[in-house]
Write a structure and sequence with these properties.
With about 300 residues, the chain is an alpha/beta fold. It contains eleven helices and 16 strands. The strands form four sheets. It has an eight-stranded parallel sheet with strand order 3-16-15-10-9-8-7-4, covered by helices on one side. The chain has a four-stranded antiparallel sheet with strand order 5-6-14-11, with no helix packed on it. Bound molecules: flavin mononucleotide. InterPro entries: Aldolase_TIM, DHO_dehydrogenase, DHOD_1B, Dihydroorotate_DH_1, Dihydroorotate_DH_1_2, Dihydroorotate_DH_cat, Dihydroorotate_DH_CS, Dihydroorotate_DH_I.
C-alpha cells in the first residue's frame, strides 16, 4: 500500500482518496458499510457558528450527468460537531478535513479557531465558494481581494494548516489561487459546484425552491481538470482536486492535471462503496501504467512538456 501514500501539509495520507465535503455527512452512514480507516482522509460537512436548517425543499435535482443541489449549508453548528460528531470518528485512522463556512469574516474566524483546536482535526478547508447561501458565501469566493483578506484572518487564528476551497464560478481561477496563496493558504481544494438551474416543464417553474443550485458530478469533470491544470502551474501549494470523480482512471487524470490528492463527491450517492473500490483498484492501474509510486503522476500533464502557462 505504500505506493499510494501522499503527503500534504497537515495530511499524511495512506492513499490520495477522500470523500468530499457534504457528500459524506460526518461519516456515520458510511461507517455501517465499510471500515472508514481505508480512506486517505475524510472531509466533513461544512460547519457554521450556529446550527443551520438549510434551504427549503426541493433542494436537489438530477441532471443527465450529475446533480444540482441547494442544500444551504445545513449542519448542527460547530459546537455540536466538535462535541457529538467528531468523537464518533475517533476510533478510525482517518485524518479529518474540517470544512468551515460563514456569512462574515468573524463567523469564519470563530469556527476556524474552535475547529482547529480540536485534536481530531488535521486541517481546515475554507469553503468560500458555496453558491447556495444568499448572504456572504459567494462574494468571498469570487473576488480575489476578499478571498485573500479572509484567508489571512483565518490563518491568524488557526493552529492547523488552512486549505482554501475555490469556486469555479469565476472568470480567472488562477488569479483566485495566487491571491489565497499569497495570503498564506497552505493548500487549495478545487472545485466546488458550478452554478446551474433546471426548470420543470409541468409547472414551468424552477425545480429547486432556491431557483439555482450547484452542479456536480461527471458533467463538471472537464471544467475541474482544466482549472486544476491551470492553477497547479500558477501556485506552488498543493491541490486537493475534485469535480466528477467516479473511478480510478478519473483519479489518475486529476493527479496528472496537478492534484496531489483527490476528493470524491456526488459519486458516493450513486455508489456508497465508490471510495474503497477506487482505492482497491488503484494499485492494478498503476501497475498497468508502469508507475511505481502514485506521487510520480502529480502534474504529469504539464511537468515534462512545454504547456504555455495561462497565468503569471
Ligand atoms: C449535496 C452536496 C453537498 C455539498 N456540501 C458542501 C459543503 O458543505 N461544503 C463544501 O465545501 N462543498 C460542498 N459540496 C461540494 C462538494 O464537496 C464538491 O466540491 C463538488 O460536489 C464537486 O465534486 P463532485 O462532482 O465529485 O461532487 C457539496 C456537494 C453536494 C453534491
Amino acid at each position: 500500500m505504500k505506493r499510494l501514500e501522499v503527503s500534504l501539509p497537515g495530511l499524511k495520507m495512506k492513499n490520495p482518496i477522500m470523500p468530499a465535503s457534504g457528500c459524506f455527512g460526518f461519516g456515520r452512514e458510511y461507517a455501517g458499510l465499510y471500515d472508514l480507516s481505508v480512506l486517505g482522509a475524510a472531509a466533513i460537512k461544512a460547519a457554521t457558528v450556529e446550527a443551520r436548517f438549510g434551504n427549503p425543499t426541493p433542494r436537489v435535482a438530477e441532471t443527465h450527468s450529475g446533480m444540482l443541489n441547494a442544500i444551504g449549508l445545513q449542519n448542527p453548528g460547530v459546537d455540536q460537531i466538535m462535541e457529538k460528531e467528531l468523537p464518533f470518528l475517533k476510533s478510525y485512522d482517518l485524518p479529518i478535513v474540517a470544512n468551515i463556512a460563514g456569512s462574515t469574516e468573524e463567523d469564519y474566524c470563530e469556527v476556524a479557531e474552535k475547529m482547529s483546536s480540536h485534536p481530531q482535526v488535521s486541517v481546515l478547508e475554507l469553503n468560500i465558494s458555496c453558491p447556495n447561501v444568499k448572504e456572504g458565501g459567494i462574494q468571498f469566493g469570487t473576488d480575489a481581494r476578499t478571498a485573500a483578506a479572509l484567508t489571512k484572518r483565518v490563518k491568524a487564528v488557526s493552529s492547523k494548516p488552512v486549505y482554501v476551497k475555490l469556486s469555479p464560478n469565476v472568470a480567472n481561477i488562477a488569479e483566485m489561487a495566487i491571491a489565497v496563496e499569497e495570503a498564506g493558504a497552505d493548500g487549495i481544494s478545487m472545485i466546488n459546484t458550478l452554478l446551474g438551474m433546471r426548470i420543470d416543464l409541468k409547472t414551468r417553474k424552477p425545480i429547486l425552491a432556491n431557483k439555482t443550485g450547484g452542479l456536480s458530478g461527471p458533467a463538471i469533470k472537464p471544467v475541474a481538470i482544466r482549472m486544476i491544470h491551470e492553477v497547479s502551474q500558477a501556485v506552488s501549494i498543493p491541490i486537493i482536486g475534485m469535480g466528477g470523480v467516479s473511478c480510478a482512471e478519473d483519479v489518475i487524470e486529476f493527479m496528472l492535471a496537478g492534484a496531489s490528492a483527490v476528493a470524491v463527491g456526488t459519486a458516493n450517492f450513486v455508489d456508497p462503496f465508490i471510495c474503497p473500490d477506487i482505492i482497491s483498484q488503484l494499485p492494478e492501474l498503476l501497475e498497468k501504467m508502469n508507475v511505481s509510486h502514485i506521487r510520480e503522476l502529480i502534474g504529469g500533464s504539464w511537468r515534462e512538456c512545454e504547456v504555455p502557462s495561462l497565468s503569471r
